Every structure is written in C-alpha cells, then in structure tokens.
Amino acid sequence: MARVAMGARKDLTDRQWRVLAPLLPRSKRLSRPRKWTRRQLVDGVRWRERAGTPWRDVPERYGHWQSVYALFRCWHCVEM
C-alpha cells in the first residue's frame, strides 16, 4: 500500500500526476534547475484553494509560498 505524508492526503496521486503533467505548459526559461518540483507547486496551489488561506500560510512541503503564488499567477494571467 502506498504511503502518504501526513497532511498530504488530498495531494495528487501518481496516476493523476501522470495524466496532468503533459497538459501543463512548459517553461521557456533556460536557467538553473528549480528548487521545488512542479508537482509540489501544483499541490500547493490546490491546497491553498481548498483551505482558502492567505498565500503565506501554504505549508513549506509545497515549496516557498512565493513560488506557489508565482505559478498560480502565471496560469491565472494565461486564462485572462
């Protein structure tokens, strides 16, 4: 049975991530590697939307709150 980190019960499963990952826009930056994985950041956005808390309250396991917010803003601007 797969183990899930405490508090990460509603994070994306491996199967859900395999379906979602190819649909996400690719980064066009040619810079240093990211510190946080895209999966962590996506789970952070999902956590924040579920919890309805301020961005600064996103748990550290999802990445720095500013990185999670930047990903959200990037997607939000594309939709507009």
**Class by SSE composition:** mainly alpha
Number of helices: 3
Order of helices and strands: HHH
Radius of gyration: 13 Å
Tell me the β content: under 5%
Intertermini distance: 41 Å
Secondary structure: number of strands: 0
Shape: globular
Mean pLDDT: 83
Poorly predicted ranges (pLDDT <50, ≥5 residues)?
A: none
- Helix share bin: 40-55%
The biggest beta sheet reads:
none
Task: Tell me what the structure shows.
With 80 residues, the protein is an all-alpha fold. Helix content is 45%, strand content 0%. The chain has a domain at 34-80. The protein has helices at residues 14-20, 38-51, 65-79. Helix 2 crosses helix 3 (65-79). The longest helix is centred in the last third of the chain and has 15 residues, at 65-79. The radius of gyration is 13 Å and the shape is globular. The model has no long low-confidence stretch (mean pLDDT 83).
